Amino acid sequence: SCTMSLSEAEVQSARGAWEKIYVDAEDNGTAVLVRMFTEHPDTKSYFTHFKGMDSAEEMKQSDQVRGHGKKVFSAINDMVQHLDNSEAFLGIVTPLGKKHATQLKIDPKNFRIICDIILQLMDEKFGGDCKASFEKVTNEICTHLNNIYKEEGW
């Protein structure tokens, strides 16, 4: 469906929550990926150049991990800017989902893992209110990505 289930107030508080973590996009994006690779080592298999890295320290220093962390945060940032415009939002989510489904063949459960880790990080750094106001956004993102995967035959 093309309708977003967030009220104007929810959009505003979600943006406020996101801004806090996006200020340090590269560091926080890296922290999210490092935690994902550490807690869910199977996710590393999708990234050929991360495979040999075992220590969190090594991953944190890696330009490739940092680069991808920043990329993930930039993509989410684009989505957050368009939460009140479902057409524009889907214009960002759809090609991203298609690419991950068809070219990269990434298991869609990894999006949920990343979103959950972002919420954990928000909770740790800025508290439960911050996390709570962003939770609906992550559900929205994951729902749309899962729909795209279904359309691509997953």
TrEMBL record:
GO terms for molecular function: heme binding; iron ion binding; oxygen binding; oxygen carrier activity; superoxide dismutase activity. Belongs to the globin family. Involved in oxygen transport from the lung to the various peripheral tissues. It comes from the Eukaryota. Its EC number is 1.15.1.1. It catalyses: Fe(II)-heme b-[protein] + nitric oxide + O2 = Fe(III)-heme b-[protein] + nitrate; 2 superoxide + 2 H(+) = H2O2 + O2; Fe(III)-heme b-[protein] + nitric oxide + H2O = Fe(II)-heme b-[protein] + nitrite + 2 H(+); H2O2 + AH2 = A + 2 H2O. Keywords: Heme, Iron, Metal-binding, Oxygen transport, Transport. This is superoxide dismutase. It is an enzyme of class 1 (oxidoreductase). Residues 5-150 form the Globin domain. PANTHER family: CYTOGLOBIN (PTHR46783), GLOBIN FAMILY PROFILE DOMAIN-CONTAINING PROTEIN (PTHR46783:SF3). Pfam families: Globin (PF00042). SUPFAM superfamilies: Globin-like.
